[in-house]
TrEMBL record:
<dbReference type="Pfam" id="PF00459">
    <property type="entry name" value="Inositol_P"/>
</dbReference>
<feature type="binding site">
    <location>
        <position position="68"/>
    </location>
    <ligand>
        <name>Mg(2+) 1</name>
    </ligand>
</feature>
<feature type="binding site">
    <location>
        <position position="68"/>
    </location>
    <ligand>
        <name>substrate</name>
    </ligand>
</feature>
<feature type="binding site">
    <location>
        <position position="90"/>
    </location>
    <ligand>
        <name>Mg(2+) 1</name>
    </ligand>
</feature>
<dbReference type="GO" id="GO:0000287">
    <property type="term" value="F:magnesium ion binding"/>
</dbReference>
<feature type="binding site">
    <location>
        <position position="212"/>
    </location>
    <ligand>
        <name>Mg(2+) 2</name>
    </ligand>
</feature>
<comment type="similarity">
    <text>Belongs to the inositol monophosphatase superfamily. CysQ family.</text>
</comment>
<feature type="binding site">
    <location>
        <position position="88"/>
    </location>
    <ligand>
        <name>Mg(2+) 1</name>
    </ligand>
</feature>
<feature type="binding site">
    <location>
        <begin position="90"/>
        <end position="93"/>
    </location>
    <ligand>
        <name>substrate</name>
    </ligand>
</feature>
<feature type="binding site">
    <location>
        <position position="88"/>
    </location>
    <ligand>
        <name>Mg(2+) 2</name>
    </ligand>
</feature>
<feature type="binding site">
    <location>
        <position position="88"/>
    </location>
    <ligand>
        <name>Mg(2+) 1</name>
    </ligand>
</feature>
<comment type="function">
    <text>Converts adenosine-3',5'-bisphosphate (PAP) to AMP.</text>
</comment>
<keyword id="KW-0997">Cell inner membrane</keyword>
<dbReference type="GO" id="GO:0005886">
    <property type="term" value="C:plasma membrane"/>
</dbReference>
<feature type="binding site">
    <location>
        <position position="68"/>
    </location>
    <ligand>
        <name>Mg(2+) 1</name>
    </ligand>
</feature>
<keyword id="KW-0472">Membrane</keyword>
<keyword id="KW-1003">Cell membrane</keyword>
Amino acid sequence: MEFNQDLLIDIAKKAGSEILEIYNDPNKFNVVDHKADDSPLTLADKASHQIIARELENAYPEVPIISEESEVPDYKVRREYNYYFLIDPLDGTKEFINRNGQFTVNIAVIKKSKPIIGVVYTPVSDELYFGELGVGAFKLMANIKKELAVNNKKGNRIAVRSKSHASPEEEGVLEKYDVVDSISVGSSLKFCMVAEGKADVYYRHGPTMEWDTAAGQAVVEAAGGSVYRGTGPEMFSYNKENLLNSSFLCLGFD
Ligand SMILES: Nc1ncnc2c1ncn2[C@@H]1O[C@H](COP(=O)(O)O)[C@@H](OP(=O)(O)O)[C@H]1O
Ligand SMILES: [Mg+2]
């Protein structure tokens, strides 16, 4: 099955423009709801989901969609999927509400249980990361395209951690990787930092959902990195019966 790179990029950017419109309109920005698990839900999450779902359904009517903002199909149905889109229309809702710009639109293509394509778009900075396994990864900033490759550093490494959900258990794991400094970033941008060589290690101890990690994983793996379940060596897999992720470790070196 073929997926059109430009189309996926265009869809992520369209969703990003809609998010920005809400971000920049105080009347819309201040409408914040709460989901059953008490996590925040903004008008932007919903609007972004609607655009992405509509555009993907038009272009690929035969490919199912799993999104943070729609009902997840029953496991008996989705376990049969060969390909599906896994989307987080607005990852880093806390960053959105805190207005620090570190939130992203995420679209991934999953083949069986593996992310093979990922698009991560940051509307505020207009930076877009794209990765396709076996093909490569790049970053688009306005009209500049930069190929991405992990650092593959042997030591003196930089860690990247959640801005809103870092946990103390992470220190113990980071110690093993000769980490000399760490940076905090919101959302799936952490995977992109590793793909870009701005960081080398990302260990997440706390819970995330499959849609939080899929696109970022495809970007970093296409740039030469790896994502492991727990602290390794098993790879991180998708379309599990429960879409809640375990802790994971992302490395930008062998
Ligand atoms: N208790 C919890 N259970 C499941 N996922 C959680 C969680 N706490 C945080 N997350 C996930 O962590 C993501 C944010 O991670 P980070 O802090 O690294 O930016 C959230 O994405 P959303 O903002 O899209 O909801 C959310 O899905
Ligand atoms: Mg998310």
